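User: These chains co-purify. Model them together.
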Amino acid sequence: DAGVTQSPTHLIKTRGQQVTLRCSPKSGHDTVSWYQQALGQGPQFIFQYYEEEERQRGNFPDRFSGHQFPNYSSELNVNALLLGDSALYLCASSLRTGMTDTQYFGPGTRLTVL
Amino acid sequence: GEDVEQSLFLSVREGDSSVINCTYTDSSSTYLYWYKQEPGAGLQLLTYIFSNMDMKQDQRLTVLLNKKDKHLSLRIADTQTGDSAIYFCAEVNRDDKIIFGKGTRLHILP
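Assistant: Joint model of the two components:
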């Protein structure tokens, strides 16, 4: 049973560029949440997707957008990258929309913005 | 505002018990979680507790919840070198969003 997978594992971009990160949920899961984890910090909730729609959003600017596909996989897009966007981006999957449902995390994508 | 607080570091001798503490602010939290993160890895769910419970035990792990004081603790019995990691406390707030603490780095002394 495959767990949550993310690609790429590492990425280096320069300021102003755009980036797309990808996530495949755990088998049987239909909900994907994205988190940003800055160095030395806990993960911060970006947004959650269910049935191909954004259902909840944290305190992140519109530069952060996402998409969910019919197979439940998801993408996180960040436009106009800033140095402060450098972080580990974690994807988590679960079975229903409620945050109370157990979330399983992927290994993350480490984004470095130069 | 909403906040989850944890001490940043804890050192424990191998074989002793580790106790990691956490305080949270949202009294309407329904679930509280403990996650483990090893270097370069994602988060691994260790255990969770419903807000109507006081204690939950799962093998070497014991979670205690004091809802009145909004205090959560994770006890790891017989701490091993493989327990060395960062431990995150997280609450599900009234908006159904998960709020994480900054994590406690557990260091195991030989």
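Chain A touches chain B at residues 4, 33, 40-45, 56, 58, 90, 92, 98-100, 102-108 (CB under 8 Å).
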